[in-house]
Amino acid sequence: MSVCMVRKTQAVAWRSLSILRSSLLRTMSDHLDRTAHSYREPGVSEAEVVSIQQASETVRLLTLKVDDPKFTFKAGQWVDFFIPGIEIFTGYSMCSSPSQLTASQKLDLAVKISDYPPTMWVHEQCTVGSKVHVRAGGDQLIFDPQPGDPSRNILLIAGGIGINPLVSMLLHTAHLHAARRDDANAYTPGKVEMLFSAASKSELIFKDTIEGIISKHPSDISAEFFVTRESMADPALTGRRIGKDDVKASIQRLEGRPLRCFLCGPPPMIADMEAILRDLGVPDSDVLCEKWW
User: Cβ(60)–Cβ(53) under 8 Å?
Assistant: First the structure.
C-alpha cells in the first residue's frame, strides 16, 4: 500500500471515529438535556444483575438487586444507569413496583435493543453477576398517591417500550387495592384503563402480566391492546393505532371521579394523544407525559 493510500485510510478512520465520538457525546447530552431539571435521589447505589430474561426478540429484561437498603423509587420513575468502563450513561424506566423493591431490594428494567453503547452492553455483554450503579430520578410521570389524597380514575396510554413506567403504575395500583383491603384508612384507588400499542404482538411485552392483574381486579382495571404493523386474527387485539374514538370511550367509562392521564411512548404518538385529550376536554394539568425518544 502506498503512503498516500495509508494516509487516506487513516484519515477515513479518524473521521469515522470523530463522527462516532460526536454521536455518542450528543446522545449522552440528549439524555442529560432531557433530564437536567428532573429530580434525582441523592447518591448512586451499586446493584447486581441477578436475572436476565428475553421479554421479546428486541427487549431484554434485567432484574437488579440494589445494595443500598435506603434506595427507593416511585411508580413511573427511571434510573440513571451507569456501567463500569463505559463513560456514557443513560436512563431506563422501572417496570416493577415499588413494593417489590421494599420486599426484596429488587427492581426490573426492560431495555429495547439499539446501537447505543449502554444498551448494546445490556444486550451483548451483561451477564448474571454483572455490577452496575443506579440513581433514581424523574418527576414528570409519577403515580404515588398518599392516604387522604382524593381518589382519581387513571387512563394509561403506552406506545412500545413506553409501557415500562406505566406497567409499574399498574402494579402499584394492584398493591394499593391490597393495602386498602387491609386498612380502611389507606388510599382508595379509582378505576384504571390502559391503551397499549406496539408494532407487533410479540412487542406487547407484559401483556400476560397486565392480564394477570386484570383477572384479580376485573371491575377496577381493564386494558385494550393495539398492534400497528401486523394483520391480526386475534380477537383480543385491535389491528390499528389508538384513535380518538378509543380515547373518548375510555374517558366515558372513567367518568365519576377526577381523571388523570399518563402517557409514555414515541414523541409523535404522544403529541397525537395530547391533542386528542385536549380536544376531548381533558385539562393539560391532568395529562402527564414521558418522552424517551
Answer: yes
Question: Which of 53, 76, 77, 75 has its CA nearest to residue 64?
Answer: 53
40: helix, strand or coil:
strand
Asked if 226 contacts 238 with a C-beta cutoff of 8 angstroms, the reply is yes
- Dihedral sign of CA atoms 232, 289, 177, 135 in order: positive
- At a CB cut-off of 8 Å and minimum separation 6, what does 9 contact? 1
| In contact, 49 and 62? CB cutoff 8 Å | yes
CA 266 and chain centroid, separation: 11
Burial tier of 270 (Cβ tally within 10 Å: 0-12, 13-18, 19+) = buried
Taking the C-alpha atoms of residue 175 and residue 116, their distance in angstroms, rounded to an integer, is 35
Question: Each residue of 237-254: pLDDT tens digit?
Answer: 999 999 999 999 999 999
- Model pTM score: 0.87
Place of cell 402480566: 209
> H or E element: which one contains 31?
helix 3-35
